[in-house]
């Protein structure tokens, strides 16, 4: 367990949210240091019991172990897991089966998978594994999802600074899951706005991981009820939580890519309550 750590993040209501200062917002929603060499770091959230984690295996293989809040014999005893590789080519061994993930490929592991090992890539070939995990009521088959398997959509425009490619990786049109959904969105050069026009979906929570962002650039992530928005400045390889009642949108000082992950009431990707830009405050 010395190579694994976790933090519990309790849910925040809209009433509490309105009273928070910058430091309190960052403490409650931002995950700044998910990726630490030879560590598995995770945040156990009280939003639909989503777990958000990062793995950077450089000098050793890392085994995913259960954590005390789960009160389980092994991590996926009552959970499902989605993993996306945002680094160099890497390997994951799940119950004796080896899966090779290229950059921006995904792996779904079903409930009941007893052992999960993230293989070391060494100093010169470093995979960076990002994962989301949610409670599961049944077992669906584990599956690797490549770019060819993904459902791809190009939306937005350069005129509105939000021309982007959405890659749906772990969604019910691609792979069966209980409630977990994951994918990534790549902003085209010259575009900086994501998830715009903004929306909420009170049926599901969401988490974002921003990456492919130059080290000297930032993303300003917007959060809150549509008429009570706040912002959080974020760096490369940082993640942020979005409660079901909150918008989740951002603008960068450069283009970037982000992983989105959801858990909650349904698996309808299009279930969104759109907010007109002119209605935001």
Automatic annotation (TrEMBL):
<feature type="binding site">
    <location>
        <position position="248"/>
    </location>
    <ligand>
        <name>Zn(2+)</name>
    </ligand>
</feature>
<dbReference type="InterPro" id="IPR021120">
    <property type="entry name" value="KduI/IolB_isomerase"/>
</dbReference>
<dbReference type="InterPro" id="IPR007045">
    <property type="entry name" value="KduI"/>
</dbReference>
<feature type="binding site">
    <location>
        <position position="206"/>
    </location>
    <ligand>
        <name>Zn(2+)</name>
    </ligand>
</feature>
<feature type="binding site">
    <location>
        <position position="199"/>
    </location>
    <ligand>
        <name>Zn(2+)</name>
    </ligand>
</feature>
<dbReference type="GO" id="GO:0008697">
    <property type="term" value="F:4-deoxy-L-threo-5-hexosulose-uronate ketol-isomerase activity"/>
</dbReference>
<protein>
    <recommendedName>
        <fullName>4-deoxy-L-threo-5-hexosulose-uronate ketol-isomerase</fullName>
        <ecNumber>5.3.1.17</ecNumber>
    </recommendedName>
</protein>
<keyword id="KW-0413">Isomerase</keyword>
<dbReference type="GO" id="GO:0019698">
    <property type="term" value="P:D-galacturonate catabolic process"/>
</dbReference>
<dbReference type="InterPro" id="IPR011051">
    <property type="entry name" value="RmlC_Cupin_sf"/>
</dbReference>
<comment type="pathway">
    <text>Glycan metabolism; pectin degradation; 2-dehydro-3-deoxy-D-gluconate from pectin: step 4/5.</text>
</comment>
<keyword id="KW-0479">Metal-binding</keyword>
<comment type="similarity">
    <text>Belongs to the KduI family.</text>
</comment>
<dbReference type="Pfam" id="PF04962">
    <property type="entry name" value="KduI"/>
</dbReference>
<feature type="binding site">
    <location>
        <position position="201"/>
    </location>
    <ligand>
        <name>Zn(2+)</name>
    </ligand>
</feature>
<dbReference type="GO" id="GO:0008270">
    <property type="term" value="F:zinc ion binding"/>
</dbReference>
<dbReference type="GO" id="GO:0045490">
    <property type="term" value="P:pectin catabolic process"/>
</dbReference>
<dbReference type="GO" id="GO:0042840">
    <property type="term" value="P:D-glucuronate catabolic process"/>
</dbReference>
<comment type="function">
    <text>Catalyzes the isomerization of 5-dehydro-4-deoxy-D-glucuronate to 3-deoxy-D-glycero-2,5-hexodiulosonate.</text>
</comment>
<dbReference type="InterPro" id="IPR014710">
    <property type="entry name" value="RmlC-like_jellyroll"/>
</dbReference>
<dbReference type="InterPro" id="IPR027449">
    <property type="entry name" value="KduI_N"/>
</dbReference>
<keyword id="KW-0862">Zinc</keyword>
């Amino acid at each position: 367990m010395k190579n694994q750590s976790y933090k519990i993040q309790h849910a925040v209501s809209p009433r509490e949210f309105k009273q928070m200062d910058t430091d309190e917002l960052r403490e409650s929603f931002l995950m700044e240091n998910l990726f630490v060499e030879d560590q598995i770091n995770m945040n156990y959230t009280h939003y639909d019991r989503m777990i958000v984690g990062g793995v950077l295996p450089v000098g050793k293989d890392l085994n995913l172990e259960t954590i005390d809040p789960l009160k389980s014999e092994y991590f996926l005893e009552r959970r499902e897991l989605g993993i996306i590789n945002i680094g160099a080519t890497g390997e994951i061994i799940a119950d004796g089966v080896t899966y090779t993930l290229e950059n921006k490929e995904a792996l779904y592991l079903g409930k009941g998978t007893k052992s999960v090992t993230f293989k070391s890539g060494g100093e010169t070939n470093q995979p960076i594994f990002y994962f989301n995990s949610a409670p599961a009521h049944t077992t669906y088959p584990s599956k690797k999802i490549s770019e060819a398997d993904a459902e791809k959509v190009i939306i937005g425009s350069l005129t509105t600074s939000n021309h982007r490619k959405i890659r749906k990786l772990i969604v019910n049109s691609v792979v069966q899951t209980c409630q977990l959904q994951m994918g990534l969105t790549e902003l085209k050069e010259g575009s900086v706005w994501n998830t715009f026009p903004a929306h909420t979906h009170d049926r599901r929570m969401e988490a974002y991981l921003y990456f492919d962002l130059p080290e000297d650039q930032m993303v300003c992530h917007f959060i809150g009820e549509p008429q009570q928005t706040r912002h959080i400045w974020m760096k490369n390889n940082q993640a942020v939580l979005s409660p079901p009642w909150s918008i989740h949108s951002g603008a960068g000082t450069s283009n970037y890519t982000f992983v989105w992950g959801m858990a909650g009431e349904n698996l309808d990707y299009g279930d969104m309550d759109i907010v007109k830009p002119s209605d935001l405050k």
